[in-house]
Every structure is written in C-alpha cells, then in structure tokens.
Amino acid sequence: MTTRTGRSFADVGRRLATGAAVVLLCLVPAAPAAAHVLIETVEPNGDGTATLTLTFDHGCEGDPTDTLEVSMPDGVEALAAGQPDGWTAELEPGSVLWAGKAVPDGDRAEFTLDVRVTGTVGQSFAFPAEQRCAGGGSYRWTDTDPSGDHPAPTFVATAASLAETPTVPTTPAATAGSPPVPTAWLVAGIVLISVIAGAAGARLTRRHERLT
User: Fold this and answer.
1) Dist. CA 170–CA 168, nearest whole Å
2) Phi first, then psi: what are they for 74, rounded to 5°?
3) What is the C-alpha separation between 66 and 60, in angstroms, rounded?
4) DSSP state of 11
5) Which of 79, 91, 128, 170 could make an SS bond with 114 (beta carbons 3.0 to 4.6 A apart)?
6) Concatenated DSSP letters for 151-165?
7) Which of 6-10, 21-25, 151-155 is most confident?
8) Are 73 and 96 in contact (CB under 8 A)?
9) Does the record carry Oxidoreductase as a key word (predicted)?
10) pLDDT on residue 50
11) How far apart are alpha carbons 90 and 69 in whole angstroms?
12) Which positions ≥6 away from 194 have C-beta within 8 Å?
C-alpha cells in the first residue's frame, strides 16, 4: 500500500528530474554544422562551364554577414561572379570575394559563380569559405569532410558539369599496301625520264660517231 507521503516524494523526484533535463538541454549549444555556407545547385551551361549557387541563412551569433570569401580548389577556374543587390564581387585567380550590404541573421543570401571544372566524374570539389560579420565575428568553413564541424561548400562532379578535355588530332600511320603519296610518284617519274633521256642521248652519240 502506497502512502500519501510516498506519493509526494515520488512527485517531487519526477519534478526535479524534469527540471534538471530542461536545464541540461538549455546548456547544450546548437550544432554549427546545421547552419553553414552551401553549394545549393550546380547548373551546367552546355559550353564546358557550370554555374554554382552558394547560399547561407545565418550570421555570426546574431550579427549580420557583410563579407564572403571563397577559395577555388585544384581543377576549378573562376570565370565570373554574380553581384547581388548592394554587393560587389572581386575575382582573383584562386578566389572570389563578395562584400556589401549586411545580410541579417536568419535571412537567406544567394551568390552565383561561373566556373570551369577539370577532373573526373564522381570527383568531389571542396571550396574553403570564410564568412565575416559586421560585429567582427567570422566562421571559416574549411573542413573537407562533410561531417566535420565546419564543412566547406562541396559538390560532386558529373559529366555535364565538367569541361571537355581537348583532344589532339593524330596522323594515321601508313599501312602495308597503301598507295605511294603523290610526291613519291613525282620523284620516280623524274628519275625515269632522266634515265630514258640519258639512254637516248647515248644512242644518238654512238650513231653520230659511226656516221663520221
């Protein structure tokens, strides 16, 4: 038989346990990998280039984002960068830097980048990125492992997104029984004419000597 006092102690215990669980959940920080810079789409342009769309929807602990810098991995050449309203893009051989009107924390931002990618189908390309905010904070998204704490924007190449590798034309080798090239025929003809002319000249000389 359970007494009223026993039930009271049990209720108090459950309440304490529930309260402790709530406090622990409040102390656990949000996982940074849940919000980072992404390559959202890769759109082939049909001419050996592709357009990447990079996005993010967070700031730095509440501060708005005013700068995004993305580095190019080996095999990727940056060709042109889109400039969203209020932003400018500075293109370097190995990177692109966007800067402009701060994007509030929680708002979605989108940037486009035209690239030429050289590699193999199924190859993964990671683009180290740094997100800087108006309050001085920043995030460096550089982990090449997608499961890392700060994963870099990454995409896997397909045949459509890769640049075509130029092929060098080769001269087919001569095969047995192939007819001689015209130059060879010409040389042979000249030699034959010379021989015939020489023989004819010798006969005329001998005939002339007999007559005289």
Assistant:
1) 6
2) -60, 135
3) 10
4) H
5) 79
6) BPPEEE--TTTSPPP
7) 151-155
8) no
9) no
10) 97
11) 9
12) none
Q: Which amino acid is at 5?
A: T
Question: Does the pLDDT of residue 178 top 60, yes or no?
Answer: no
Tell me the sheet residues that pair with 143. Answer: 151
Whole-number Å distance between alpha carbons of 40 and 159:
18
CATH code linked to domain 32-156: 2.60.40.2230
Q: Which residues on neighbouring strands pair with residue 99, listed in sequence order?
A: 67, 88
Lookup: tokens for 168: 């060098």
- pLDDT-derived band of residue 36, with 50, 70 and 90 as boundaries? confident
pLDDT digit string (tens) for 45-91?
999 999 999 999 999 999 999 999 999 999 999 999 999 999 999 99
Of the candidates 79, 50, 48, 76, the one whose C-alpha atom is nearest the C-alpha of residue 166 is 48
Q: Name residue 198's amino acid.
A: G
pLDDT of residue 198: 58
Q: What is the DSSP string of 15-59?
A: HHHHHHHHHHHHHSPPPGGGS--EEEEEEE-SSS-EEEEEEE---
Structure tokens at 130: 């740094």
Distance CA 83, CA 42 (A): 18
Instruction: Output the pTM of the full model.
Output: 0.63
d(CA 15, CA 84): 52
